[in-house]
Amino acid sequence: MKKNKLNILAKNKKANFDYDIKETFEAGIQLLGGEVKGIKAKKISIKESFISLTKGQVILKGSHVTIPEYANQSYISQTRDRILLLNKREIEKIRKEVGQNGMTIVPLKVYISDRGLIKLEIALAKGRKLYDKREVLKSRDIERRGA
């Protein structure tokens, strides 16, 4: 069995701390040429970004992609909204979970898949309270000392 080796370009490290992740999805990102060059050069930030559902589309908002000067596409906004590419079934499942169970959609990481495509891993998550965050810190500390 071949082991998948992903080339991770950006990670949202606070997501695992701030949210209790229930389910993850792999989504493509609708990008323009200069954005692809910037992302492959690891000039992307998804720390402050979030995902919204509008008109049956899943949209990544607030992510920052620095477009290289040689890309000659300076007219592209670095923080523009980017449409995420998912199956209809996945979009419907996400919409139901967000509507009924009060879940949040969180971007986790941007990576290059084994086929050379830029993908975004998103998750359905539930926000953690302050006392839950303290409990996570305590369990990590105990695990670190014991190991």
Structural features:
about 150 residues, alpha+beta, 9 strands
Estimated helix fraction: 25-40%
Q: Write the H/E string, N to C.
A: EHEHEEEEEHEEH
Number of domains: 1
User: Which class do the helix and strand fractions yield?
Assistant: alpha+beta
CATH architecture: Beta Barrel
Q: Report the uncertain regions.
A: none
Could you give the count of β-strands? 9
**What percent strand?**
35-45%
SS field, number of helical segments: 4
Overall geometric form: globular
CATH first level: which class? Mainly Beta
Arithmetic mean of pLDDT:
87
Through-space gap between termini: 30 Å
Please tell me about this protein's structure.
The chain is α+β, with helices and mostly antiparallel strands and 147 residues long. It has one domain: Small protein B (Small Protein B, Chain: A, Beta Barrel). It is built from four helices and nine strands; from the N terminus they run βαβαβββββαββα. It has a seven-stranded antiparallel beta sheet with strand order 1-8-9-2-7-5-4. A two-stranded antiparallel ribbon has the order 3-6. The two termini are 30 Å apart.
What's this, in brief?
The protein is of the alpha+beta class and 147 residues long. It has four helices and nine strands; from the N terminus they run βαβαβββββαββα.
List the topology elements:
Blueprint: E1 7-11, H1 15-18, E2 19-29, H2 33-40, E3 44-45, E4 50-54, E5 57-61, E6 64-65, E7 82-85, H3 88-101, E8 104-112, E9 118-127, H4 130-146
